[in-house]
Amino acid sequence: MRPQLFSLTVLLGSVLDHASAQVAPAIAWEHALGSSVYEQLEDLVPTADGGSIMLGVTYGNDGDVLGMYTIPNIWVVKLTATGSLEWQRVLGGSGYDLGTSIQQTPDGGYILSGYTGSADGDVSFNHGERDAWLVNWTHRETCFGSAPTAVVSATKACPCN
After folding, report:
1. Were 61 and a residue from 68, 78, 99, 125 both cysteine, which residue would form a disulfide, CB within 3.0 to 4.6 Å?
2. At residue 50, what are phi and psi to the nearest 5 degrees?
3. pLDDT at 160 over 70
4. Cis preceding linkage at 72, omega within 30
5. Is residue 55 within 8 Å of residue 44, measured between CB atoms?
6. Which DSSP letter does residue 26 get?
């Protein structure tokens, strides 16, 4: 029995030495997003452009969060490949609204699932207390003008072709 115990010890020691020699990857970027109140991330998925789309809940209406109906609402944030805020959107109404999952669709839009207690704002109808809610939309910008870059909002520029 002793030789088997010795071989197990040598093998375990070899694995531990190898594991301790590995180096954790460096942080490529980090950004804190939110308001002065409370936000929580529910889902984060990569997008076709190398960025990511983030789905969460918000209780605030300042800082990075704009367009809140009442608390809480669904908060969707599009990040660039470097983690910078590209655009954000608050969804819901005057009831309790929470998103649970988001995916990019083949047409470049997004579909999210969650639930809602609202019957106003972005929510067209509610059967009772909380309903399952699916939202499918395409975030497309329309350019006006013929300059190489036309400003479509105070913070976002859109290249025109």
Report:
1. 68
2. 90, -5
3. no
4. yes
5. yes
6. P
In angstroms, the CA 122 to CA 70 distance is 12
Q: What are phi and psi of 120, to 5 degrees?
A: -150, -170
Q: Which pLDDT tens digit goes with each residue over 18-36?
A: 555 689 999 988 889 999 9
Tokens matching residue 56: 């969460």
Distance, CA of 78 to CA of 64 (rounded, Å): 12
With tokens 């479509």, the residue in question is 152
Please write the tens of the pLDDT for every residue from 136-158: 887 544 333 333 332 322 223 33
Separate counts of helices (H) and strands (E) for the chain: 1, 9
pLDDT over 70 at 106, yes or no: yes
Tell me, what amino acid is at 7?
S
| Spatial separation of the C-alpha atoms in residues 112 and 132, rounded to whole Å | 11
99: closest CA among 146, 44, 140, 61? 44
Its sign, for the CA torsion 76, 78, 84, 89, is: negative
Q: Tokens 């040598």 correspond to what residue?
A: 10
Query: Contact 16/10 with Cβ under 8 angstroms?
Result: no
